[in-house]
Amino acid sequence: MENRSLKIISRKINARIEKGDENFLISAIATPEINQVSDIIFIRNENFLKKLVNIKSKTCLIPNSLKNEVSQFENILISDKPDYSFALLTKIFAINNDFNKYISHNFNFVNTPVIGPGTKLSENISIGKNVQIGCNCVIGESVFIGDNTVIDHNVTIYDNVIIGKNNHISSSSVIGSEGFGFSKHEGNWNHICHLGSVVLGDNVYIGSNTCIDKGTISNTVIESNVIIDNLVHIAHNVHIGDGSAIAAKVGIAGSTVIGRNCLIGGMTGIFGHLKIADNVVITPKSNVYRDIKESGRYSSLFPLISHLSWKKISIIISKIDKIIKYTKK
């Protein structure tokens, strides 16, 4: 493996060593919540400082503004453009796709699964009892598929995905694809490689053409007994609680945590880095841009009205600040 010393990494990501041992070897990128001694943690801003409890890691990458806030680390890398440096850092630890690793399904499984024509399997796959995999699927390396799981035709499952028991993944869905992460530097978008994966619990149903992205560093998690409709997008590092249901065309942005037994109506858009409590119902076409801290039923946007009425209302909305100012006089 290529040398990943602090010195080499600092050069590759355009960062400087503020303090520490330049020969210290870095084994992985980690999060403030889960890390080991040889990991490096990216601390983007002050909000991340609150998560630095019981840290094992000795190394961090930070912006210059935080250099006096991370004295607990023995090795500190500072970047004037931290997001760009983090994008470069992920490339060091990314695994390049090798399409030659996919071979035909001539495996000697203890419990031989039913596998359709055209399906390609990679190496180190673990498949449980009574598993069915349809035609023209692609299963990546080190994937685990639990008992009684059905994977329909044309499904793609990327490396290191864990799928529990009694799951059903419908046609043309993609599990573990790269998340939508970029950092802009000198006018160009730099891709942030995603190093996590996806973990599905038991009794999960996923509809057709649904995409679940793998996590940036840690995993995207769908707990047990979750049902997901067609054409849903779940971004990197999202966590969905047990027993929740998500209707078609919902989009959930990165790092949002959804509680247990939530019901999310069709075409709802949920912003990133939010927390939604247990037992929340969100009606269709809602726009969720803040945390929901209490259970209950929530809605946004207007119900259908005549176009003429909407034109009148839109004029009022555009002048609402002036109306409020006038009424306070």
Write structural notes for this entry.
The protein is of the alpha/beta class and 329 residues long. It has two domains: 6-93, MurE/MurF, N-terminal domain (Udp-n-acetylmuramoylalanyl-d-glutamate--2,6- Diaminopimelate Ligase, Chain: A, domain 1, 3-Layer(aba) Sandwich), CATH 3.40.1390.10; 100-298, UDP N-Acetylglucosamine Acyltransferase, domain 1 (3 Solenoid), CATH 2.160.10.10. Helix content is 13%, strand content 27%. It contains five helices and 34 strands. It has helices spanning 6-12, 46-49, 82-93, 307-318, 320-327; strands at residues 16-19, 28-30, 39-42, 59-63, 75-79, 114-115, 120-121, 126-127, 132-133, 138-139, 144-145, 150-151, 156-157, 162-163, 168-169, 174-177, 182-185, 188-191, 198-200, 205-206, 211-213, 220-222, 227-228, 233-234, 239-240, 245-246, 251-252, 257-258, 263-264, 269-270, 275-276, 280-282, 287-288, 296-298. The longest helix is centred in the first third of the chain and has 12 residues, at 82-93. The termini are far apart.
For the residues shown, what is the average pLDDT?
Answer: 91
Shape: flat
The number of distinct helices, counting runs of at least 4 residues, comes to 5
Helix content: 10-25%
Biggest β-sheet: strands ordered side by side in the sheet:
6-9-12-15-20-23-26-29-32-34
- How many whole angstroms does the radius of gyration measure? 23 Å
**Strand share of the residues?**
25-35%
Q: Indicate the CATH topology of the largest domain.
A: UDP N-Acetylglucosamine Acyltransferase, domain 1
Distance between the termini: 71 Å
